[in-house]
Amino acid sequence: MDCFSGKLWHHLPSKDVLETFQVDPGKGLDTLQIKWRTDEFGPNALTTRRGKTKLERFLLQFHQPLVYILIAAGIITAALGEVVDSGVIIGVVLVNAIVGYIQEAKAAGALEALANSMITEAVVIRSGATRRVAASELVPGDIVILRSGDKVPADLRLVAIKDLRVDESALTGESVPVGKSTDLLPQDAVLGDRRNMAYASTLITYGQATGVVVSTGDCTEIGRISTMVSEADELATPLTRKITSFSHILLWAILALAALTFAAGVLRGEKAADMFMAAVALAVGAIPEGLPAAVTVILAMGVSRMASRGAIIRKLPAVETLGGASVICSDKTGTLTENQMTVTAIFAGRASHEVSGTGYRPEGSIEGFTDTDQALRTTLLAGLLCNDTRIEYLEGGEKVIGDPTEAALIVAAGKGGLDLEAESKGLPRLDTLPFESEHQYMGTLHDQGADTPRLAFFKGSVEAMLDRATMELLPDGSLAPLDHTAIRAEVERLGLGGMRVLAMGCRELPKDASSLDHGDVTSDLIFLGLTAMIDPPRPEAIKAVQAFHRAGVNVKMITGDHAVTAAAIGLQLGLGIETCPGHPTCQVMSGSEMALMSDEELIAKAADTSVFARVAPDQKLRLVMALQNRGEVVAMTGDGVNDAPALKQADIGVAMGRGGTEAAKEASDMILTDDNFATIEAAVEEGRGVYDNLLKFIVWTLPTNVGEGLVILAAVLLGVALPILPVQILWINMTTAGCLGLMLAFEPKEPGIMDRDPRDPRMPILDSELYIRIMLVGGLLLIAAFGLYEWELQTTGVQEQARTVAVNVFVMVEAFYLFNSRSFTRSPFALGLWTNPWVVAGFGIMMLLQLAFTYVPFMNVLFGSAPIGLLPWLKIIGVSILAFIIIELEKWLRNRPAKAVRA
Q1: Which of 63, 301, 415, 550 has the fewest Cβ atoms within 10 Å of its own Cβ atom?
Q2: Per-residue CA distances from 453 to 144, 356, 514, 789 (Å)
């Protein structure tokens, strides 16, 4: 499709744009023009790109090395005639595949959500007549009429406007509606500064306009975002990458040991058939059958815990990924800030007043406010009455109907004790002078009563008020010559704080005046005061940023707002912003600066910059990729359509549940139900706990597989019968994983979990210390199981009893080792026995199962076990307690030096 590549519509005069499309704005396109343009450009809709079919997504769940091992184990056990055990293993594989498929299917709707955002209707001029058509029928060159409340149906170059304001927050991140004009703009104007354009999916909040369609469908800005979402990489999470790497190592280790076992036996003169069965037994023993199920259960536990803290996980691995995040890139509006404009300072009567309280409820106070301060009270009154917005107070919160800036003025007046209904009755409105971008002010005319001059209030830009005012109101109600220098100095001070400053004015008109026009505002205005407002940071977000810094996680703010506002919020949040002499935004990178950087320059500078302002959607995506190129694990938060590509590209995308668009939610891995940045801190804490518990399970379960493999290998090398059979190995692996290992999923988070640096994503899942622990416990199992097996065999001469002793050694040592594994650094006695009662319950259930394995007749037939006496049990318990003591001694020796807490 021809998207008029290279056309900078904002940099072309409107008449040139109309000539390009050969259209008269008063007549519009005719029928034949519409037909051939529809054929050439297609419908005004986003292309739905082919994704994986349901069958493909399901089959890909089996495309993992660990799953290959499990499938092989299932086939081998089936070949051995153990149908039940084979069914259990294959069942584990199927459950994991189904869970993975369901989670992935939930994430397949990002493009559909974007396409839905384009479904609307449009009012167009065609063949000289005004008509309403489906937005999908629009073609380049169509003349579209926009009114308040309309959703913009395509990308438009505005050719005529009247007081137009557009909410572009979903596309650009701009926190307040943007005033539009038809003026020619510089070639390098970024998306958020293109005031002569209206973009598809944005919302008209005020005024009306006429525009010519310049882009439709995939060629629109939202279409470009759709393309970026579809092309963004589906990244494997750090956990899945590590599990995959670990599984590859495990696969080759198992094959090598099985081959060694077979070769060693044959070289000793044993029968090849017997050695093949021994190799199969070793392979079955070395496979951690319970690992996939354990990973799923532990992640699911994390999902449940996070949900209770306001974070809904859409993809299971995201639970752990968030715990490993090293950088969090956050949208500003509504996430780090309240998303509620708040007046924080008032300058009136030549005095400054701080205003406390945030949000749209009139809770707070005005410093130094008294009813006798006429300048301050009248400034509040002007903001209250020269206002077309209202606030509805509902059970679930506040709803602003109108402009958030005007809502802030209503709330500020409420903090001064002024009530809108009462003041409106005392000063009823007679006429309104709407805000127009060319004049930069709004006015209202009020009746003060019989035989009294009419009173007009004005609010607008500082320049608009100062140019028309000659006097200013003082606190005692008297007038004095206007001090321009003092006011401009105050405006500069407030501006450096990133605040939006409005000026208030008034004048009296003849008592018979019934209307208001711009001629009434040319001069002789009385300056009342300034109101400074900002969307303030959430107090809990400030604390969360501090907690992240303690945890070694960098926080970066990415916003569509201007650099000065971004710098002010960054400074309040503690993002490392420091005001430089004469240049408060020196540590803020703007979108225009980013556009001039090469990828290498951006990668180098991204890590050292904490605040990014006026950033376009593709730049958010580029920034995330630059950080990932540095090896960072990136979490990205956002709520707008413009955030969707970056949310999908990030290692974990976090969308806002209340204020977020569907496109952002569908592209994310996690949704915050309260739109609160502090919830991310809670989720990171839970994620770190999940990873700790996963690691504890792995370090607990692998020694059993190592021990089983070593026992089989030792038996082959020594030329003796196998101490444990394949079916007994399966019993050990599956029952202990379910009854013992999974209890670690309920292990509470250890103290100091947020006082350590995030894991290095390049490090393997196990380090050298943990490998030593695994080999130590595996070696203890080899010695204990093989030793007691031979002892029992020499004492009784009964093979079944000796194997029963060996199986019980494995189970009992694992059961005691479970208490060792509750922490890598702390004693189980320091943790407390009942801080995780599930471990105690699992221990009890496992003991009952082992008694059944040993003494129930049909279990003896099924697993080749046999009853044993009291003395063997005392030996088994004795070696288990000894192993527990040795492991605790190793833990104590390893942690004697002061070290960073691992878990």
Answers
A1: 63
A2: 44, 35, 11, 109
User: Residues 678, 680, 682, 684: what is their CA dihedral angle, to the nearest 10 degrees?
Assistant: -140
What radius of gyration, in Å, describes the C-alpha atoms of the chain?
A: 35
d(CA 476, CA 472): 12
For residues 616 and 171, give the distance between their C-alpha atoms in angstroms, rounded to a whole number: 8
Q: How far is CA 722 from CA 28, 786, 814, in A?
A: 89, 10, 20
Which residue is listed with tokens 């208030």? Answer: 504
| Alpha-carbon distance values, 413 to 349, 362, 365, 381, 476 (Å) | 16, 8, 10, 7, 19
- The yes-or-no verdict on residue 732 having pLDDT over 80 is yes
Dig out the tokens for 20 from the structure. Answer: 């390009």
pLDDT band per the 50, 70, 90 thresholds, residue 108: very low
Helices (H), 330-459: 374-385, 404-415, 420-426
Maximum C-alpha span of the chain: 123
Which residues 6+ apart lie within 8 Å of 855 measured at CB? 867
Q: Which residues contact 694 (CB under 8 A, 6 or more apart)?
A: 239, 294, 295, 298, 299, 320
> How many CA within 13 A on the CB side of residue 355?
28
- Of 476, 386, 471, give the one whose Cα is nearest residue 427: 386
Does the pLDDT of residue 117 top 50, yes or no? no
Q: How far apart are CA 214 and CA 322, in angstroms?
A: 41
State the catalytic residue, choosing from 85, 150, 331, 639: 331
Ordered DSSP codes for 199-239: -TT-EEEEEEEEEEEEE-GGGSHHHHHHHHHHHS--PPPHH
Give the Cα separation of 638 and 653 in Å (integer): 8
Mark whether 561 is an active-site residue: no
Instruction: Indicate the pTM of the whole model.
Output: 0.69
Q: In this structure, what is the dihedral angle of CA atoms 521, 525, 527, 528, given to the nearest 10 degrees? A: -80
Structure tokens at 26: 């008063």
Q: How far apart are CA 325 and CA 654, in angstroms?
A: 12
Cα→Cα distances 579→499, 531, 582, 587, Å: 15, 23, 8, 8
φ, ψ for residue 142 (rounded to 5)? -65, 140
144 versus 313: which is more confidently predicted?
144
| Gap between the Cα atoms of 693 and 153, Å rounded | 50
Calculate what percentage of the chain has a pLDDT beyond 90: 31
Q: How far apart (Å, rounded) are the C-alpha atoms in residues 367 and 351?
A: 11
The distance of Cα 178 from the centroid of its chain, to the nearest Å, equals 27
Q: Collect all residues with Cβ–Cβ distance below 8 Å to 803 and sequence separation of at least 6.
A: 723, 724, 725, 728, 789, 864, 865, 866
Size of the chain in residues: 903
Q: Are 68 and 251 in contact (CB under 8 A)?
A: yes
pLDDT in tens, 277-299: 677 767 766 777 667 667 777 77
Q: Among 147, 162, 145, which residue's Cα sits nearest to residue 211?
A: 145
- Residue 504 burial (CB count, 10 A): 27
Question: pLDDT tens-digit profile of 232-251?
Answer: 555 455 666 666 677 777 77
Which of 779, 777, 760, 795 minimizes the C-alpha distance to 887? Answer: 777
Q: What is the DSSP letter of 560?
A: S
